[in-house]
């Protein structure tokens, strides 16, 4: 299953990343529209704001705690977050993805930004194709692990978090931001909710998602420390309204027609996520933790 799923994810992002960059730019993640989701702002600024808000929430941007120098970006896309973090912290950032197209494009962007390591700059971003369940890094290699909207793709959530724990240095911070479903401690998912999620899984190449309390439980099991969680669903839900509005202009439609059926299907199914947020089924979960 894992091999087949990885191939599906690879093909999905190989096919769609170019169009996303053309229409939306370098950041392949939600935007932040204020805690209540009511702030009006440029869509790309909203994506930058999400990065900054996450860093502040996870207390990464506090100089007195020591700024990160070795950063891992799990599910790096075309390098949007990686390049941003490298420049912000003057750090060495390694990004991994299952998509050779994404890794290649991210590498080109790092080179064009003078961050490939050949320009004498302290900020370096490098990229490779790798499986997050079996990362090709030594134990305790990174002092900050950034996972922004990649956890939902992981076929074994506990194994993924265990790998992140393994490569995290003592004192380092793990920040995972991922799609979740609503908590189920009081009421199990209904048949309609399960079908809704199954449709999202099929369209976006996801094996399954968990609730945020379930992720927190896994973090405790793995001996993470200083575990914190938050649900930012209201803050990011307007993102899907904006995506839908932008998906059907002339430029996007032409791009869709040349990107293949999986990309077209994803575009036609954007309402699944929009309605999921509206009903409270889909949640945007944050988890930060440290390793002692």
Q: Overview of this structure, please?
A:
- Helix 3 (80-89) links the parallel strand 1 and strand 2 (92-97).
- The chain has one domain (2-116, 125-290): Rossmann fold.
- The longest helix is centred in the first third of the chain and has 23 residues, at 2-24.
- The two termini are 34 Å apart.
- The chain is globular and about 50 Å long.
- The protein is built from twelve helices and seven strands.
- The mean pLDDT is 91.
- Helix content is 47%, strand content 18%.
- It has 292 residues and is an alpha/beta fold.
- It has a seven-stranded mixed beta sheet with strand order 3-2-1-4-5-7-6, sandwiched between helices.
- CATH architecture level-2 label: 3-Layer(aba) Sandwich
* CATH topological fold name: Rossmann fold
Under CATH at level 1, the class stands as Alpha Beta
Class computed from helices, strands and strand pairing: alpha/beta
The arrangement of helices and strands along the chain is: HHEHEHEEHEHHEHHHHHE
CATH superfamily: Vaccinia Virus protein VP39
Strand percentage lies at 15-25%
Number of structural domains: 1
Taking the alpha carbons of the first and last residues, their distance comes to 34 Å
Please give the number of β-strands: 7
Query: Could you list the spans in which at least 5 consecutive residues all have pLDDT below 50?
Result: none
Strand numbers in spatial order across the main sheet: 3-2-1-4-5-7-6
Q: Identify the overall geometry.
A: globular
Q: Please, what is the average pLDDT?
A: 91
Q: Biggest sheet, open or closed, and with what strands and sense?
A: 7 strands, mixed
Give me the number of helical elements.
Answer: 12
Helix content: 40-55%
Using only C-alpha atoms, the radius of gyration works out to 18 Å
InterPro entries: Erg6_SMT_methyltransf, Methyltransf_11, PiNMT-like, SAM-dependent_MTases_sf
Region (SAM motif II): 140-148
Family: Belongs to the class I-like SAM-binding methyltransferase superfamily. gTMT family.
Region (SAM motif I): 71-80
């Amino acid at each position: 299953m894992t091999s087949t799923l990885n191939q599906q994810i690879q093909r999905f992002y190989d096919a769609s990343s170019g169009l996303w960059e053309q229409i939306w730019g370098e950041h392949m993640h939600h935007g932040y529209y204020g805690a209540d989701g009511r702030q009006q702002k440029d869509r790309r600024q909203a994506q930058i704001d999400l990065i900054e808000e996450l860093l502040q929430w996870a207390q990464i941007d506090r100089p007195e705690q020591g700024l990160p120098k070795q950063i891992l970006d799990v599910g790096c896309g075309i390098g949007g977050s990686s390049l941003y973090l490298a420049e912000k912290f003057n750090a060495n950032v390694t990004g991994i993805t299952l998509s050779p197209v994404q890794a290649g494009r991210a590498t080109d962007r790092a080179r064009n930004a003078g961050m490939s390591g050949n320009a004498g700059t302290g900020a370096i971003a490098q990229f490779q194709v790798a499986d997050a369940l079996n990362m090709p890094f030594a134990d305790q290699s990174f002092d900050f692990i950034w996972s922004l909207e990649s956890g939902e793709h992981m076929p074994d959530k506990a194994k993924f978090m265990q790998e992140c724990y393994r490569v995290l240095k003592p004192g380092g911070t793990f920040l995972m931001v991922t799609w979740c479903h609503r908590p189920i401690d009081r009421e199990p998912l209904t048949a309609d909710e399960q079908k809704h999620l199954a449709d999202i899984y099929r369209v976006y190449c996801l094996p399954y998602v968990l609730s945020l309390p379930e992720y927190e439980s896994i973090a405790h099991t793995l001996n993470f420390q200083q575990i914190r969680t938050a649900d930012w669903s209201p803050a990011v839900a307007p993102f899907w309204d904006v995506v839908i509005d932008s998906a059907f202009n002339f430029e996007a439609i032409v791009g869709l027609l040349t990107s293949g059926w999986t990309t077209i299907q994803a575009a036609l199914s954007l309402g699944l996520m929009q309605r999921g947020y509206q009903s409270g089924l889909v949640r945007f979960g944050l988890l930060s933790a440290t390793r002692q």
